[in-house]
């Protein structure tokens, strides 16, 4: 994960000065907080940077950044220390605390050069918890909202492109969840419930990688219910957009087994999509 601008563009200190600060502080993460009161904001801040670079535990650096803000509030280094607290907390996988620190930075310094990074870090603190399709999707929705904020509020920032890529992946993740539930219902022959899930994918997640399978599952579910026209239309859309997909082969085989073929039939929600997607008829 990239560091914020203020850290990558930090003022250079002579190596001897950094070593002397390290020695003076004792390098002990267990030292009492008042042991830092004799040092300047910059010296404490640099000690936090050293801890980030050398320690395996980001929490070792967190203390220094917190002390900068406590001892030297309203200074430039206090502002830098706050964004670095958010960074260290995220690196420690303390995501809720990282979000709080990021939001506090945005509230205090909305126009600062690192505001884009704070917004991106806030989004990452949601995104990095999307680790499995089976868990609650509230975090995914929050990640999408926060990533969209990065894209819309900071389109020229260095974080916008990464936010776009992660937005697409999170969007795909939601579609995957709908597919998982739809397959669950389909396997248990709850066809109407499964159709509702696959319909959501086709209507709301057309740009994801799950659309082809959703259309094939619709063919399967509609045939099971005897809704032939819907099944044929779903296969027609599938054939038009994903003819080389194995899902189209499966759908075609299902229809052929009942003496049917893919074609737009009737006046239903799938035929409306067919007209819009293939014929360009939006009204």
TrEMBL record:
SUPFAM superfamilies: TPR-like. Pfam families: YfiO (PF13525). The keyword Transferase does not apply. Transmembrane segments: none annotated. Its main location: membrane. InterPro entries: BamD, BamD-like, TPR-like_helical_dom_sf. Residues 1-17 form the signal peptide. Belongs to the BamD family. Part of the outer membrane protein assembly complex, which is involved in assembly and insertion of beta-barrel proteins into the outer membrane. NCBIfam families: OM_YfiO. Part of the Bam complex. This is Outer membrane protein assembly factor BamD. It comes from Pseudogemmobacter lacusdianii. The gene is bamD.
